[in-house]
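Hi L.,

You mentioned the student needs an example of a multi-chain input paired with its predicted structure. This one should do, with 924 residues in total across all chains.
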Amino acid sequence: MNNDNLIEKLKSILKENQLLLKDDILTRFSHIWKTDEPLQAIAVTFPKSTKEISEIVKLCNVYNQQIIVHGGLTNLVGGTETQKNQLVISLEKMNTIEEIDSKSKTITTQAGAIIESLIDAAAEKDLLLPLNFGAKGSAQIGGAVSANAGGLRVFRYGMTRQMVLGIEVVLPDGTIISSLKKIIKDNSGYDLKQLFIGSEGTLGIVTRVVLRLQEAPKSRSSAFVAVKSYDKVVKLLKYLESELSGGLSGFELIWNRTYRAMTESTELIKPLGDNYEYYVFIESLGSQPKEDYELLEHHIEKSLEKEIIEDAVMAKTEKELQQIWQIREDVAILASKAKYDQHFDISIPISQIGEIINSIITELELINQVKTIFPFGHVADGNIHFIIGRETNSPEIIDLINSVVYSPLKKYKGSLSAEHGIGLHKKKFLLTSRSKEEIELMEKLKTMFDPKNILNPGRIVF
Amino acid sequence: MNNDNLIEKLKSILKENQLLLKDDILTRFSHIWKTDEPLQAIAVTFPKSTKEISEIVKLCNVYNQQIIVHGGLTNLVGGTETQKNQLVISLEKMNTIEEIDSKSKTITTQAGAIIESLIDAAAEKDLLLPLNFGAKGSAQIGGAVSANAGGLRVFRYGMTRQMVLGIEVVLPDGTIISSLKKIIKDNSGYDLKQLFIGSEGTLGIVTRVVLRLQEAPKSRSSAFVAVKSYDKVVKLLKYLESELSGGLSGFELIWNRTYRAMTESTELIKPLGDNYEYYVFIESLGSQPKEDYELLEHHIEKSLEKEIIEDAVMAKTEKELQQIWQIREDVAILASKAKYDQHFDISIPISQIGEIINSIITELELINQVKTIFPFGHVADGNIHFIIGRETNSPEIIDLINSVVYSPLKKYKGSLSAEHGIGLHKKKFLLTSRSKEEIELMEKLKTMFDPKNILNPGRIVF
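Structure written out for the whole complex:
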């Protein structure tokens, strides 16, 4: 048995426009950020249905053919990288939004639909799909489910995991598991969908999903405040959670050094002086624009009186709101401040973020080759991102930086990956966040699902 | 190898007050509702630590000894039933609440702690553990996690699954998996805890957990309203979700026949006339008692004006609020209306509940031996409970009733168990809600985790 036979068989189940071979493959790029890097693979397939995916996977089983699943190619940990002997299953032709049920508040879709198109389709019916992250214009929902994507609304609405009501997957042996339920509560045996959410396509290919939608909020209010100490950041979070009740939807922190870098010599506005330790972006969503704004304003004033915060500005117009949030969102600016950059996405218990990040910064500053250190993140979720700039690309320095950032994780029971996953790139650090027993159990699961290790091999386990 | 050897070995690892044998076992009851039915077992063990549980489980492996795990014995599907050749591991001596972290808003506890004591401990620090169901005064948190318990606050705060941040379990081979993390976001490989939540103790024994807490709300407002049609019930839900934004926390429905039964000749009040098709209990939680009450009142008035609802009453005092909610909560009254009763806990997509429940009632009314039919439930979650009273205990009639209630589930992609689980009692109906492929995958998982089938055997799969 060889590749030629496999290709012949693929031709018998796929139409001509569903299969790319040889030089045609090179017309595609390998990653959304590497559009000049041509894709390597023995074939790229474009199935149009779950059944076609199942047939492709069954064939690959017979021929021991490794498969890499492609969505919007926005994965940040090498999840979609290929070798030239691997076959790609691209979901891009499976982009049909099948149904929006306004009464049950669900959307049913094929896995290749772009997240933004789902958000827009829901919005047309005054419903909210609360997934919101930078790559939403390219990322596909199947990838978001497989990676359990997070983003800017996790604090209020949860990760992707919380939005998935029903799922359809193709297992590594081609078996179709279809459970496209619209129900919120289902304790009828093992909740199998949880196995496929966040396992980065190593246990099955997500082909269709049912997602829970929310009623669209009618108001969005924002404030930007300056805080003196991390303790007061936590105090502010507790205060606003308590006073705004279900309304608080965003609470994003940036450190002084990050704020300075974002606002010096850029197109961005600088709403507050740059002499404070911490800056917090606050968002509340509600149903009464005027009252919700006034309530947030009232508690921001109270926070000033109580000296929880040092200074503050409310976003009085939609334009001001956009301008303020841009300081949080345009983090690509931070990556441009040094020759090379290294990105982190760690979780730490909220109570300990202040001291841990301080000690990481102190240690990083001792490394000569480190030029810039920019922490920021979803502090209400305990999720801090770091963009670290360096003058060198030497593997020793990269490893040294990794070991500094990851070293507190074991002790404080954190995670090396809050949102981005493990993929190929973070696998060697998995022990910083998971025990030997946990990793062994993951390996047993992978072996049970995929004994030939043909589906997304090399990701997470082996 | 025989039982005597196992007992001797158990004596070597447990203190005298940690082991019950022979007649002493009969001093314990088998279920919280069957306190006159003595427990059957070859031994009851009371480990005090995860390590002791691991040692007991390892011994049981050597001796092929079946284990049934006991918490508060409130399970409704036979999950804690024993045979006299089975060994019980009771978690009741593992009831230490280890830590409440006010900043990270987490509670860390051993699995045998009573849920109400966790709620109280959190409340002392102005934090809310949003688990709220009838059995909370007896049920233990380990059982609630293993069963993925639901209850009255699911609509706003989710099932138990959403509250679990960290978990420690003993696998059927005695391996300890400990991941007592306090973090909300963790995409470091497979989310193994999801496997143990809701799998009814068949894949491992939950020994400790970290739960996410919420800031305690400061206001609770309630209304009770009468509605003419199911379509208008859904309209009202959408309207209130939209207008109260994050505030809506309860939306419970009872049918006319259930309302009549609850309010005729009982101690309960009758806040509205009994001539409407549907009655809805509405609850909002917030931070501003006066404003939140007025906002709910305003939208109840609007709903009357728009003719979404027919009649309404606001709970003006805490006493009135309690009295109104008692009509929803004292459902034991419904079970007393006939000689025998049969309870159901089904999930159906919200959009289809009205027609499906109507057609179930119509079919049940054709069965002579059915005397009472009382539907009610968590309509915002798509979860309807049925208490059906009959004059006979004949297995044929019981089966007939089961088949009527379960028959729409396959077609409408519902679930035979929204909250209560499968246990021993619902196993034979599992195919109404899960596919052959799903059940086969559950069986493969069970076999991988527990090849000797010694842990909670007979539950869910085999």
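You could point out the following to them. Residues 395-412 of chain A form the longest helix (18 residues). The radius of gyration of chain A is 23 Å.

Best wishes,
N.
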